[in-house]
Structure formats: C-alpha cells, structure tokens
Amino acid sequence: QWTAIYRYTRNPILNLAPASPEMDRLLRQIGKAAGKRRWALTLLAGAWQRIRYAPSERLHVYMECDDVEELRTLAEREGWPEDAAGSLALIRPVYRTATWHQLSHAGPQDVPVVSDLQLILDLWHYPERGRETAEQLWRPILRRFERTIATEEPPHSE
After folding, report:
1. Which DSSP letter does residue 60 get?
2. pLDDT > 90 fraction of the chain, expressed in percent and rounded
3. What is the pTM of this model?
4. Residue whose C-alpha is closest to residue 91's, from 41, 137, 21, 46
5. Chain segment 107-151, per-residue pLDDT in tens
C-alpha cells in the first residue's frame, strides 16, 4: 500500500541553476559542498551511474539536512541560484533512514547513489522515462529472485 502512494515529490525539493551544467564538474562541486553531510544521486542521474540507461541533463540529489533552509544556505554559498528549470535539484529526504539504506557508489567518479530499490521507487512515477528506467533496474533483481526460488529445495514432508 505504501509503494502505491509513495512519490519522491513528497520530499522538499530545491531547484537550482549552477553556473556549470557539466555533470562531472557539478558532481565534484556537490561532493565538496556537502562536506560531512550524506548525499546521493537518485532518479535518472542515479540510474545512469548504475546502469547507463536514459541519460539526463538534470541531477536529482538527496542531501542530508535538517530543513530546506539549510539547502538554501548551501546553494547560496555555492552560487547556485534557485531556478525551476535548473539542472540541479537538491532534495531533503523525508524518510531519513530509508533514503540512506544500502547506499552504493557507482560510475567513474565513484559517486554515491541510492539503493536500486529506492531508485525504482523514485523513478516509478517520474514523467520522463521513469517507469521504463525503473523496469530496467527491476529486471535483474527479479531474475535473481526467480533463480533463488528455483534452486531452493521444497520442504520435506514427514
């Protein structure tokens, strides 16, 4: 029931327009700006790092913080003005524990990415190739599950 109503948009989002839209440079800037805070890519940017499927010009980044004002302060310090059409979306996670569960590092820059399950949940209702990308992430998980079920021995009856 929870997955039917879950939407990443329930998390507060700050849309920004960094001066450099170049992704590798922006990823380095985000890592520096985060400091000791946890952060991780999600949506198409996260999926691109994991499976190289559906590239995006926009980075969606969960950033550990107490409130959106903390994100605004960080953005101002970095010179990233607010802009609804900007290439960076900083997201304050509402589900603070789940967001960071099974965090992995991927891609050539070894950037943090949310778990495959979190990516699938976030992507499922994302309008631009979200469900299609979620299904690409889901298929290998489903195959592993099916193989596990197929190799398990049935319970012995006495």
Report:
1. E
2. 58
3. 0.86
4. 41
5. 777 899 999 989 999 999 899 899 999 999 988 777 776 777 777
The whole-angstrom separation of Cα 95 and Cα 83 is 25
CA gap 71, 41 in Å, rounded: 15
Tokens 């929870």: give the residue: 2
DSSP string covering 67-86 = SHHHHHHHHHHHT--B-TT-
- The alpha helices in the chain, defined as continuous H runs, are 2-5, 23-34, 43-51, 68-78, 96-100, 116-123, 130-151
Q: Which residues pair with 79 in a beta bridge?
A: none
Please calculate the CA angle 38-34-82 and round it to the nearest 5 degrees. Answer: 115
CA 18 to CA 15: how far, in whole Å? 10
For 14, counting Cβ atoms within 10 Å of its Cβ (0-12 exposed, 13-18 middle, 19+ buried), the class is buried
Cα dihedral value 51, 53, 59, 64, nearest 10: -30
SS3 88: strand
Encoded amino acid at 56, one letter: S
Place of tokens 């949506």: 43
